[in-house]
Amino acid sequence: MQGLFITLEGVDGAGKSSHLDWLGEFFKSRGRQVRMTREPGGTPLGEKLREIVLHDAMHPETEALIMFAARREHIAQVIRPALAAGEVVISDRFTDASFAYQCGGRGLPADKLERLEAWVQDGLQPDLTLLFDVPDQVARERLLAARDLDRFEREQRDFHARVRAAYLERARLQPGRIKVVDGSQTLAEVRRSLEALLGDLVAP
Ligand code: TYD
Questions:
Q1: How many domains does the chain have?
Q2: Which of 12, 121, 155, 188 has the fewest CB atoms within 10 Å, measured from its CB?
Q3: For 123-162, what is each residue's pLDDT tens digit?
Q4: Is the distance from the beta carbon of residue 17 to the nearest atom of ligand 1 less than 6 Å?
Q5: 3-state class of 197 per DSSP?
Q6: Confidence label for 201 from pLDDT (cuts 50, 70 and 90)
Q7: pLDDT at residue 204 greater than cutoff 60
């Protein structure tokens, strides 16, 4: 079996979390070994870095460097070994989030992140990225209804609008890999869209 690397992305409140378990089951029911993971995090060290980066104030470049430091560990400890073993790796966020949040949201220049990406990923890219997209107002209403907000979720409306625009721009530039899913549909409708997108990846 060929390993498969799938990432889920979207602004906070776009609804990706509601589909994570379903996605895992989709592949398990087709006989695949599935590895569910997340960023920032995914390893014991990465989870410690997650706590820091989600809650402590810091320079935007420090924030980007911590995201990539956690990612380096995640790739070495989890992603590469699982892919080599033929598993389906499903990660709740990956590098597109750094371009969306640290570049789009915080305003860091993309070329700095491109250098980190080349260094840390050494050619590794997701086979498929599902970008959950919803209008700014929908994401905002979902967020305000949520529990304890982290540093990113507490950001202002225009920050989230910039993050969304950066995600959509990446999807426009990499249409083969990044598929936009309309997260404002009903759960059943989103699942039908996902099944259509995943159909190509599973053996008949
Ligand atoms: P998120 O995936 O939304 O988790 P939860 O559903 O538990 O809130 O939280 C991760 C946050 O980290 C999210 O706001 C986006 C941010 N983030 C970045 O800014 N850059 C990155 O590279 C990654 C992976 C996440």
A1: 1
A2: 188
A3: 999 999 999 999 999 999 998 888 789 999 999 999 999 9
A4: yes
A5: helix
A6: confident
A7: no
Question: Are residues 45 and 73 in contact, defined by beta-carbon separation less than 8 angstroms?
Answer: yes
Our mutation pick for probing the ligand 1 site, out of 9, 12, 140, counting the most ligand atoms within 8 A of Cβ, is 12
Q: Is 93 in the pocket of ligand 1 (CB under 6 A)?
A: yes
Dist. CA 97 → ligand 1 center (Å): 7
Q: Is 97 in the pocket of ligand 1 (CB under 6 A)?
A: yes
Q: In the numeric block, which tokens belong to residue 46?
A: 């990465």
Q: For the segment 40-96, what is each residue's pLDDT rounded down to a tens digit?
A: 999 999 999 999 999 999 999 999 999 999 999 999 999 999 999 999 999 999 999
Q: What are the tokens at 11?
A: 């602004």
* Ligand 1 center from residue 114 Cα (angstroms): 19
The CATH number given to whatever domain includes residue 54 is 3.40.50.300
- Angle at the Cα of 68 from the Cα atoms of 64 and 70, rounded to 5 degrees: 120
Residues in the chain: 204
